[in-house]
Amino acid sequence: MSTQPAVRRWTYDEFARLPNDGNRYEIIGGKLFVTPAPSLTHQKAVTAITLALGGFIRAHELGELYVGPVDVLFAEGDYLEPDLVFVRADRTAILKDRGVEGAPDLVVEVLSPSTAGRDRTIKRERYAAFGVAEYWVVDARTRRVEIYRATDDASRQMEVATDSFEWQPVQGGPALTVNVRELLG
After folding, report:
1. Model's pTM, two decimal places?
2. What is the DSSP letter of 171?
3. First and final CA of the chain: distance in angstroms?
4. 14 in a domain, yes or no?
5. Contact present, 92 and 64 (Cβ < 8 Å)
6. Within a domain: 23
């Protein structure tokens, strides 16, 4: 299975017709990327993060959390499929039948050997360019989370958490302490 990009422009209709064959398809910057289904270690991490965030989000009525596969549609030729996305309650208008049409407030990618390079480079760059407020790169193997947050001056600050960190999805709202060791243990 090649993870090299195919060079051509894709419309959303073409993207939507790609086969449902267990592979993950993404169009990033107009290029097709295909990766195999994730490992059980990957899925265990996604499940743990979903459980940790989901209860907090529901308890405080903060918005909507979606587990991949879910399409995030930024622009023609940019259709990404992150592991998790969160959209605040005041921004749910971007949630459509075909996916998230705009920048989620949080995107989470759990690293796999076949996607780690892309998650840390081109996908991080695309998420920043399209206005994703917060992006987590989760490495279950090393038990660490790289957190990229947009700042007022449009730069990106990175924090590396190996113990715990705070997630505050709504400014001035409740905060969740995310214990990395428990989450990825």
Report:
1. 0.88
2. T
3. 30
4. no
5. yes
6. no
